[in-house]
Amino acid sequence: MKICIVGQGYIGLPTAALFSRNHCEVLGVDVNEKIIENLNKGIIHIEEPGIADIIKKAVERKIYAASLTPQKADAFIITVPTPYIAENYSCDLSYVINACESILPYLEQGNTVIIESTIAPMSTDETIKPIFEKAGFTIGKDLYLAHCPERVLPGKIIDELIHNDRIIGGVTPECAIKASEVYGKFVEGELMLTEAKTAELSKCMENTFRDVNIALANELTKICAEIGVNTLDVIEMANKHPRVNLHSPGPGVGGHCLAIDPYFIYAKAPKTAKIIKLARDTNKSMPTFVCDNVRKIISEGKIAVLGVSYKGNTGDDRESPAYEIIADLSKDYEIAIHDPHIGNPNFQNLKEATKDADLILILCDHDEFKNLDYGLISKNMSETIIFDTKNIIKEVPDEIKLFNYGNLYEI
Ligand code: SAJ
Question: Atom 19, ligand 1: which residue's CA is nearest?
């Protein structure tokens, strides 16, 4: 089977790798010439375990190639960004539309087209299907169209692409069957055949479920700070219940998924999606909550910010709440930034960032921050105060003052 994958980013490239490892010929298409040039040399541009080796071997065996333009294939998979339009929270489908139009000249009867990008509910039927019908195809008869969203965790993408159950949302039942034959090449999880609109809403709901639960934990933090209870103890105790899973509060919700996908649902039903919108507003209020507490801890001086990635152990800083916090605090404090996962020339190492700092502000749960070099830090700071908004530090030497979401009422 020859497969053409449009978009060779966090999802497209690992997907290409797995098809190439399972006896498919793969063409990876992208708009970035440098990425294409490097991929054809077997060099990859994403930090994801296991991908580099598979792509390198596939390039050597000439079963993977990268190109700026599509070619004829049996199946076409679209894995391009779908940002949200802040003005009305709707889904920007322009990249998906452009990708679909770019494959039109290469489509043949009997081909399968799959949209993997996370898209707003009803997009496949209302926006994408007409593109191919205008080109003369009859969906479900001479062209098969499906939405098959991914659900992988950065750092575990290969494993999850193979083993997670996969939603196969066909515009018609025949489309779902054809799309399941494509993923059957490497997916070992269950292939769950359904309609495209069900697949779209399921995907958005997966991340919305998580966003709402994180908002509940964040609201609990604010309540505990107000009435003088330890949030972390409450979460630990409540989660001992076999059917309770309070999520972890933090400085906000980042990433290109949870911070965006709930808006796609809200935009479709703004009068009804009240919990979803309130959860988003709650999570978006956390940067201000963090800054308000910083101002209670110290009124002036230098702050060493540890971590700007949107989540631990990754260099991905998309939609990271850290940037909003840094912008706000920069008005009143000197800010130094340290993040071992992001190579930014303006960032400093731990020693430089904490030198003469009045507060260490932890905004990300990188493993490196769970066992800080307190000897180095204490020498570096006249009084060592740490505000850990990810609640990852379990204990500190006596001379260090530690604030986290469990003791904000003590400030
Ligand atoms: N976060 C919290 N508290 C928590 C969990 C996470 O504040 O208890 C924060 C994180 O710090 C981060 C954000 O939420 O800023 C998102 O974290 P995440 O762990 O949900 O990670 P993502 O966005 O990389 O991955 C999610 C996953 N979706 C679900 O777990 C339902 C992943 O399976 C999806 O494939 C991915 O979104 C996606 O691409 O949609």
Answer: 311
